[in-house]
Amino acid sequence: MARTRSIDQESILDAAEAVVARDGATRLTLEAVAAQAGVSKASVLYDYKNKQALIAAVVRRATARDNAFNQSRIEALGSVDSPTIRGRIDAASQPFPEEFGAVALQLCAALAQDQTLRGIIQTNQQQTLASVLDTAKNPRGARLAYLALEGLKLLESLDYLHWPDDVRRSILDDINWLVDSQPGTPTDNLHTPLV
Which residues bind DNA (predicted)? Predict the structure, then answer.
């Protein structure tokens, strides 16, 4: 009979995030994650065959958590025009937790160096943009709002820019205004793939 697995994958991923925040993704080792989680290296290897697989799992979990949070904000709005983009704007009213900043910055560095990791984010962004456009009353304005919102979040997560709360709220109000705006000349290529 096989032995029951007693190591929680979430605790290993929590440990991996802590190591990424402390040491960076490029210097992450399976030994350091095991030590942080208080388990053996073999326990980490049981689920994650190498460093790359572990970092990919951290990226997938962060993406899934972000998607779940955004979806909860979309659902909380009830019946509104352009629910996907409006829910994502509402979700952005709560900036990333400060403790995730170091992890986000280090994961961005890892993504820049690894196409497989970038692929996780690229696929998620393509799916998100498709949902924004498919649920938008005005897809062109929603697309601009999406680009502005993602730009805001990226600048903050990379620690490039931060605004006082009142200015940030005003920026989000402006992004929300874009959802209904009618920019420029119409085009038929809203669903053109990003890559």
Answer: 29-48
H helical segments located in 4-161: 9-23, 30-37, 41-47, 51-76, 83-92, 98-113, 115-134, 139-157
Q: Which domain holds residue 147?
A: 9-180
Q: Does any domain span residue 2?
A: no
> For the CA atoms of the chain, what is the radius of gyration?
19
The string of pLDDT tens digits covering residues 109-156 is 777 788 888 999 999 999 999 999 999 999 999 999 999 999 999 888
The full 3-state SS of 123-151, as one line of letters, equals HHHHHHHHHHHHCCCCHHHHHHHHHHHHH
The pTM is what?
0.82
Dist CA 1 CA 31 (whole Å): 29
Q: Which two tokens stand for residue 6?
A: 């007693």
Burial of 160 (0-12, 13-18, 19+ CB in 10 A): exposed
21, 103, 104 from 99: Cα distances, Å:
9, 8, 9
Residue 157 in any domain: the answer is: yes
The mean per-residue pLDDT over the stretch 34-53 comes to 92
Domain of 22, CATH number, reads 1.10.357.10
Angle, helices 115-134 vs 51-76, to 10°: value is 10
For residues 116 and 69, give the distance between their C-alpha atoms in angstroms, rounded to a whole number.
24
